[in-house]
Amino acid sequence: MPELPEVEGYRQYLEATCLHQPIEALDVEDTKLLTTDPITLAETLSGVSFTGTRRVGKNLFVFTDKPGVIVRMHFGMSGSLEYYHSSLDRPRHARIVFYFRGGFNLGFICPRKFERVGLVEDVDAFLKSKKIGKDALELTVEELAAALVNRKSVIKSTLLDQSVAAGVGNWIADELLFQARIHPEKPANELSTTEVEALREAIQQVLLTAIEKEARYAHFPESFLIHARAWDTSPYANSEQHLLCPRCGSELEIMRVGGRTTYFCPVCQQR
């Protein structure tokens, strides 16, 4: 699933390719992917140009030169973007295509149809209505502490709440807690000042690293827990294929926390 680092990559990609080109037409293969009526969307965007972007968590907002017209993109389970010339074939799964007058197109790739595109008038009002909090990368120590102080739920589940730290997904939450040496089942409101500071430092470290590496997990530092997750051929597995902690070499544990698969080190992340 595209998480904050991937969506930041899409934001940078869109800004590098699609700004200041009037939209000639919009083609929507499946209107269920839209949060705005298709006719309204097409008429509103006709002749409009993208002028800039803002990402908040996993949401990408694309500003236009038409006041009060902002395109919101959410990449669902596997969405992405592809900018291509009209002389080329339409990309596979490009179920929404923005056609620019200059001969280039932007395909919104929707393999599993969980992705969404629509219009919003005001970004902050939209975020408030959807209870989406501050972007995880923008959180200060004080803001993070305030968000956790009254939360009795375990810290892993709390971090996945988009009203607390927008953009944090499952593997990111595991990585943050591993780097901060916090057990995933510790109640959020029981974190010490030192632990909150370590967690905020981990948020910066992990997310900025993931953005820099373009979310290519194999390129992450060897000290990252992500190398031990199931989708990788882990360099931290012993002869019996038990996953080992990249920090201390102890056997990792896998359990369900809040219904989500969770990796942690019982030695480095003690209760």
Quick tags:
7 helices, zinc-finger, DNA damage, N-terminal domain of MutM-like DNA repair proteins, elongated, four-stranded antiparallel β-sheet, Helicase, Ruva Protein, domain 3, alpha+beta
What topology does this entry show?
Layout lengths: L3 H14 L5 E6 L9 H8 L4 E7 L2 E6 L5 E5 L5 E6 L8 E7 L3 E6 L6 E5 L2 H7 L11 H8 L6 H6 L9 H11 L12 H20 L40 E5 L2 E5 L7
Antiparallel strand pairs: 1-6, 2-3, 3-4, 4-8, 5-7, 6-7, 9-10
Helix pairs in contact: 1-7, 6-7
Task: Provide structural commentary.
The protein has 271 residues and is an alpha+beta fold. It has two domains: 4-129, MutM-like, N-terminal (N-terminal domain of MutM-like DNA repair proteins, Alpha-Beta Barrel); 136-264, Orthogonal Bundle (Helicase, Ruva Protein, domain 3). Helices cover 27% and strands 21% of the residues. It is built from seven helices and ten strands. It has helices at residues 4-17, 38-45, 123-129, 141-148, 155-160, 170-180, 193-212, and strands spanning 23-28, 50-56, 59-64, 70-74, 80-85, 94-100, 104-109, 116-120, 253-257, 260-264. The chain has a four-stranded antiparallel β-sheet, with helices on one face. A hairpin with a 2-residue loop joins β2 and β3. The longest helix has 20 residues, at 193-212. The relative contact order is 0.12. The model has no long low-confidence stretch (mean pLDDT 94). InterPro entries: DNA_glyclase_Znf_dom_DNA_BS, FPG_cat, FPG_N, H2TH_FPG, Ribosomal_uS13-like_H2TH, Znf_DNA_glyclase/AP_lyase, Znf_FPG/IleRS. Residues 2-115 form the Formamidopyrimidine-DNA glycosylase catalytic domain.
